[in-house]
Amino acid sequence: MEIFTFLLDFILHVDRHLEAFVTQYGTWVYVLLFLIVFVETGLVVMPFLPGDSLLFVVGALAGVGLLDLPLVMTVLLVAAVLGDQTNFAIGRYVGPKVFAWESSRWFNKRAFDQAHGFYERYGGITIILARFMPFIRTFAPFVAGVADMSRSRFTLYNVVGALIWVVGLCVAGYFLGGLPWVKQNLEKIIWGMILVPGLLVLWGTWRGRSASKAVP
Question: DSSP of 65-126, one letter per residue?
């Protein structure tokens, strides 16, 4: 329970935690950021780690001189690409038998089904779109591996998606994070970056299921 409370606090106040970490440990923050993004995108057991909000906050911290923007974007880009490649490889190794798995402490079957439905609807472009969607982001490369997408095609989508995701959100944080309104409402912005994409995914999944049921 204490771990869950800490993770929730870290997600909602990632700016404070990262700022404190930079102050105490300096350049080790780059290692921490690499691990967070790699684990979130590379391991299906950790879909709840912050993603979009983390990148935005990283950009904001770079904007006030606490982080080096080109360096941190490079670190995060490598982590995002390697994470998805690892997840994809795991999916290919596990194969179709994953459909018979049940939800457990380490595997969220519902999130997997949502990602699979999204993949079935949008195909390979899912790898790019999923970068901006919590939970789907973690499961999309895994689903692509299970579906046996070619490695070269997946790698192309992976790199393009990672570039748009990392550079886009970090640069947005860099230029917008210092604005007074953003500073005052950062917690609400973080909630919005978590809830809005999540609700869109749920709505898209519901529409997909309704459409499939309507087909005779």
Answer: TSS-HHHHHHHHHHHHHHHHHHHHHHHHHHGGGGGG----SS--HHHHHHHHHHHHHHGGGH
Cα 92 to Cα 87, 97, 141, 183: the distances in Å are 9, 11, 10, 43
User: Of 17-31, 67-81, 176-190, which one has max mean pLDDT?
Assistant: 67-81
- Tokens describing residue 98: 């994953």
How would you class 66 by CB atoms within 10 Å of its CB: exposed for 0-12, middle for 13-18, buried for 19 or more?
middle
Q: What ranges do the domains of the chain cover?
A: 2-214
The dihedrals phi and psi of 150, each to the nearest 5 degrees, come to -65, 145
**Residue whose tokens read 């990672």:** 162
Percent of the residues in the chain that have a pLDDT greater than 70, as a whole number: 66
